[in-house]
Design goal:
The chain is α+β, with helices and mostly antiparallel strands and 243 residues long. Helices cover 39% and strands 23% of the residues. The N and C termini lie far apart (43 Å).
Length: 243
C-alpha cells in the first residue's frame, strides 16, 4: 500500500458505522461482518488531497464514510474532465482490477473505510450476499451514468446546473430549513468550485455563474458566501432541472 495511504489508519468498528446499512457492508451480519471488520481501516484525506492517480496500482478498495470524492481523467493536452462524484456509502475502486482507470481526489475533507484488495476479493468469493450487494451497487452506478449522459447531451445549461444542485442536495447531509408552509426547503454547502462544476457539466465557468445567478433571481435558490446554497422548495428546483 502506498505510503500516502498508510498514514492515519485506525481500526474501524462496523457496529458503530453510520453508513453501514447503506453501504455494501449492509449485506453482512454475524461472523461475516466480523471478517470484514477485521480487515477494515479508516483513512482520512484533507480537501484537495489526491487519493490515487490514474493508472496507479491501487491495492485497496473502500467505502466513503463522509465527504465527497471527485473522480476525473486527464486528457492528452493536460485538461481535466470530472467523470463522477462519490458520496457517503458509495464504493470507491474496482474489484479484481488493480490499475485505476481515473484519478480520485478529496473534493471536501473525506473519511474512507478501506479494505486491502486481496482479502476483500477473497470475501467476495466466499460471501455471496456481499458479491450480490456489490453487483447491485455497480448497476446503480450504470443507471446514474446513463442519466448523466442524457443531462450532458440533451439538457439546457439551466437544467444542468439545477440538476447538479439537486444531486448534491440529495446526496450530502443538509440542514433542514423549511417552514410550516414549505417543508421541503434545505441548505447545503457546494463541494465543488465553479470551475469544477463547469468541468463536470461541460459548461464554461461564466455560464455556470450566470445560471446560478438566474436561479437565485427566480427565487429557486439563495447563495451565501458563494458556497452555501439554500433551496426554498426542492420540488420547484426539481421542476427546473427538467425532471
Amino acid at each position: 500500500m502506498p505510503a500516502s495511504v498508510v498514514r492515519n489508519l485506525i481500526p474501524l468498528q462496523c457496529n458503530h458505522c453510520a453508513i453501514r446499512h447503506r453501504a455494501i457492508c449492509g449485506a453482512l451480519n454475524g461472523d461475516n461482518l466480523t471478517r470484514i471488520n477485521d480487515i477494515a481501516r479508516q483513512k482520512t484525506y484533507r480537501a484537495g488531497e489526491t487519493i490515487f492517480f490514474e493508472n496507479d496500482d491501487v491495492d485497496y478498495l473502500g467505502n466513503v464514510l463522509s465527504g465527497v470524492v471527485k473522480l476525473g481523467k486527464l486528457l492528452p493536452d493536460g485538461r481535466q474532465q470530472i467523470v463522477g462524484l462519490q458520496f457517503a456509502s458509495d464504493f470507491l475502486g474496482r474489484a479484481f482490477k488493480g490499475n485505476a482507470n481515473c484519478h480520485a481526489e478529496a473534493a471536501t475533507d473525506v473519511e474512507l473505510c478501506i479494505f486491502p484488495r486481496k482479502p476483500f476479493e477473497t470475501l467476495l468469493n466466499d460471501i455471496h450476499d456481499l458479491e450480490d450487494r456489490l453487483f447491485a451497487n455497480t448497476l446503480d452506478e450504470l443507471d446514474a451514468a446513463r442519466d448523466w449522459l442524457l443531462l450532458l447531451g440533451r439538457q439546457s445549461a439551466r437544467e444542468k446546473v439545477a440538476k447538479f444542485l439537486m444531486m448534491i442536495a440529495r446526496r450530502i447531509p443538509n440542514i433542514g430549513c423549511g417552514t410550516e408552509d414549505d417543508t421541503d426547503a434545505i441548505r447545503f454547502d457546494l463541494p465543488l468550485s465553479r470551475a469544477d462544476m463547469a468541468d463536470f457539466l461541460g459548461l464554461t465557468i461564466e455560464t455556470v455563474s450566470r445560471q446560478i445567478t438566474r436561479l437565485k433571481t427566480d427565487g429557486l435558490i439563495d447563495v451565501e458566501q458563494n458556497r452555501t446554497i439554500t433551496v426554498p422548495s426542492v420540488s420547484r428546483l426539481e421542476a427546473a432541472s427538467g425532471q
